Fold these 3 entries.
Entry 1:
Amino acid sequence: QKEVEQNSGPLSVPEGAIASLNCTYSDRGSQSFFWYRQYSGKSPELIMFIYSNGDKEDGRFTAQLNKASQYVSLLIRDSQPSDSATYLCAVKVGGNTPLVFGKGTRLSVIA
Amino acid sequence: DTEVTQTPKHLVMGMTNKKSLKCEQHMGHRAMYWYKQKAKKPPELMFVYSYEKLSINESVPSRFSPECPNSSLLNLHLHALQPEDSALYLCASSQGTGVYSPLHFGNGTRLTVT
């Protein structure tokens, strides 16, 4: 059974700090990795995707992928209170297969 | 603003009612999805349409009936629902069902079954 694991949190960081969110996955054949941000009562919003080993940066967000260790992480630099949300990690094993979501990590950025 | 539009935003219905949820996208995407999400849980896949054909049905009860009239529209028909069906219903679309096609979600319909 394909599994995606995340620490449920809450992860509390002070404003201006780096928030580090981690995700591990069980299927070594997984090919694509996505991070969604979900504010309470709202729908998930795609913020990053990564397909190759290494780092991918977009503004204050950096996604890191290590396929050998089967983990993907999301770093948020200069965290703001508006970053407080649940972050969902999602993994796709192959074409025509469903996206597998982790349970999400709740991030709280303290002003 | 999301490019996947869902209506209505909120819906309250009795167990004997019939209602429909609607979803529309104009991104030229060829795959559309229905998800159900309960509080503090991740989204749970219900149905996938690819090129207007149902490609995945995750053993959803027959009281939920999907319909894809064309490549831009997706409906979810609801009939004889139970209170435990109360949830946030999310529509999503993607360019295709391949590995490198991220899903884009609509704002969701908050459904309450009384």
Note: Chain A touches chain B at residues 31-32, 34, 36, 41-46, 49, 51, 88, 90, 92, 94-96, 98-99, 101-104 (CB under 8 Å).
Entry 2:
Amino acid sequence: LAKTTQPISMDSYEGQEVNITCSHNNIATNDYITWYQQFPSQGPRFIIQGYKTKVTNEVASLFIPADRKSSTLSLPRVSLSDTAVYYCLVGGSNQAGTALIFGKGTTLSVSS
Amino acid sequence: DGGITQSPKYLFRKEGQNVTLSCEQNLNHDAMYWYRQDPGQGLRLIYYSQIVNDFQKGDIAEGYSVSREKKESFPLTVTSAQKNPTAFYLCASSMRTPNTGELFFGEGSRLTVL
């Protein structure tokens, strides 16, 4: 199972771009990289998912280098409401018995 | 609306009592998961199930039990053997094939042992 490492916390100001990097050195060939956002006392919410190169949706971009040993979640122009914990999840398989293990997450604090 | 429903949202129990947390999904997902979250901590996997009548232990299964008799339901029982059960419990589901790691979470159940 691929283990992930993220910074424990990050601080930013409103309007700035925030990049959160996740390290996953032993990622497997079939693994996808998925990022989640969690607010206090709520379940995590899917943000974005990718396998390689770059993926962009309406809220974020995900950059994955060719070796796939890391990934970077990019949040453009953050606002106060982006203050949350962000988790990087690596896993997924077409085979049965896949356990999806979360890392400790990155607490992002956005100030005005 | 499709989604995952966890109940109860808040639960109190006395030491030595078993308690069962409910998790129901109408997403037609094959796989379901239970995670535990302690204050300021990440999510730790308790049990997961890929298909009906089958489930696997996660990292912290001791003191917990599950069943998967129906595709829609994956209840978690916190037994008296769990030494420190006070925590926030999250249920999730995903497609089994392909299981890319896209999880859908419920809103959680907060258990407090008095």
Note: The CA atoms of residues 5 and 22 of chain A lie 6 Å apart.
Entry 3:
Amino acid sequence: KQEVTQIPAALSVPEGENLVLNCSFTDSAIYNLQWFRQDPGKGLTSLLLIQSSQREQTSGRLNASLDKSSGRSTLYIAASQPGDSATYLCAVRQETSGSRLTFGEGTQLTVNP
Amino acid sequence: ETGVTQSPTHLIKTRGQQVTLRCSSQSGHNTVSWYQQALGQGPQFIFQYYREEENGRGNFPPRFSGLQFPNYSSELNVNALELDDSALYLCASNVWGYTEAFFGQGTRLTVV
């Protein structure tokens, strides 16, 4: 059974700092991994999708890396802003599970002005 | 291109009642998945629908059921509501397979 863990559970940083969010998964037979952002009480916004054959994916100030063999992904946020404050979730899609996503519990990020 | 939309946004029900939640998939998407998110936790997969049939189910009892319609929209039905069913219910759509999933804004269900 796939298990996804995100560390840290919460993070508070000053504005402008570069930061790294971590995601690990126990079963390396994944097809892809997706990072999401969730504002309080809202739905999920897709940030980046990284295929199992890729090492990195970038979008603006965000960079996601994937090491499938070691079961790890990181989300790097450059020059953080107060508007980045949200919960960040990673989710993996198994090679045999179709559209089903298995989520971690998220990292709650607060960026202080 | 319209995104994933869910209705209603909020709902309060009494224990033992039944509820129906609705989801319209993003244009061009043929697969809908439903997730339950308890407060402070990550979303948990309930089931997914493709070609109007359930195609994969998580660890949820049979009182959680669903439908998918020919236009790919979907309903989630929950019978005999329990207090623990209080959660944010999320719908996601994508093209069948391993493509990027897009989520709606969720329905907040409170069972009292």
Note: The radius of gyration of chain B is 13 Å.
